[in-house]
Amino acid sequence: MGISRDSRHKRSHTGAKRAHYRKKRKFELGRQAANTKLGAKRIHEVRVRGGNKKFRAMRLEAGTYSWGSESISRSTRIVAVVYNASNNELVRTNTLVKGAIVQIDATPFRQWYENRYAKVLGKKKNVSAEEEAKSAANKERSKHLQAKIAARDSEVESALEDQFGSGRLYAIVTSRPGQSGRCDGYILEGKELDFYLRKIRNKK
Amino acid sequence: MSEQVERAFQKQEAVFLNVKGGVAKKNARWYKDIGLGFKTPTEAIEGTYIDKKCPFTGNVSIRGRILTGVVRSVKMKRTVILRREYLHYITKYQRYEKRHKNIAAHLSPAFIGVKIGDTVTVGQCRPLSKTVRFNVIKHQAKQTKGSKKFQTF
């Protein structure tokens, strides 16, 4: 393809032009970027140096995201790419890369929360009485279990609660989809969340 | 505070900021002792800067050579150029000649007030950029003779 990662073509620290004295070697090769998009999963396997494999994700739609303060991870659908510190083009084309801020589906996390704390998350208006009765928050529990649940700390910061109300959480991608073939990350909370919310709002 | 000047959120990888039930410790900061008898500056421990290339609060280890030099330029962001002078022997004439080499070294925000002419100790680390393979680990300000208070400028 012609992409090489050598430094022999660059000028030296003193500014001198380096002589071209040997051809490109295979160990300094580079490959085309994955530019992982959102869509039905499509992953290409690449044989790399040493016979090892890399999984180049061309299209992904889900990943495992962690809720740090609660110490849990759930596999969720990725909805959209919302912010990228390096390049706005990557936001426009919904490209998944490490460090991109994405919106993920909140349902697995809400279900876990309702199971654990027996409380409804997010101030959802017009929840019909029948839906509320069926939700995990109000299922039958023994007195012992109820006591245990009451003792747990179920506080969630307000910014997160609002996101649960809309069903979409902001998260940051921490895996490298073009290398591992996965788009995993963690949910933004606290100062980081404020920082990125402000950035997103200023862009709009 | 004002250390969030970049477009991405600056934080220390080793510190988890979102502990449940309120912040466990206000301004939790990770720092390390770089070894070899070098003292980690108080500014590194108490400061609020984020620098992933800092030897005390970032993800670089100092190993290999330890060199010293005189600061020649501080114009770059978080890096300095040092000048190391040495004498080279010419066997035919049995005499020496002066030579020098410039080294680019990363300067952590832990070291404040580094000026041209200061002596600095640098330690070798992994390549941090095209020319930077060293990291400042000690700083010794230039001694003015008798350190008179008044300095011509």
Helices and strands in order:
The complex is a heterodimer of chains A (204) and B (153).
Chain A: E1 36-38, E2 42-47, E3 53-60, E4 62-67, E5 72-83, H1 88-92, E6 95-96, E7 101-105, H2 107-117, H3 129-134, H4 143-151, H5 158-166, E8 168-173, H6 177-180, E9 185-187, H7 190-203
Parallel strand pairs in A: 1-3, 4-9
Antiparallel strand pairs in A: 1-6, 2-3, 4-5, 5-7, 7-8, 8-9
Chain B: H1 42-46, E1 66-73, E2 79-90, E3 95-106, E4 119-124, E5 134-140
Written overview of the protein:
The complex is a heterodimer of chains A (204) and B (153). By secondary structure, chain A is α+β, with helices and mostly antiparallel strands. Helix content of chain A is 28%, strand content 25%. Chain A has a 5-stranded mixed β-barrel with strand order 4-5-7-8-9. Chain A has a 4-stranded mixed sheet with strand order 2-3-1-6. Chain A is elongated and about 80 Å long. The two termini of chain A are 39 Å apart. Chain B is 3% helix and 29% strand. Chain B contains 1 helix and 5 strands. The chains are: A alpha+beta (204), B mainly beta (153). At the A-B interface, helix 7 of A face loops of B.
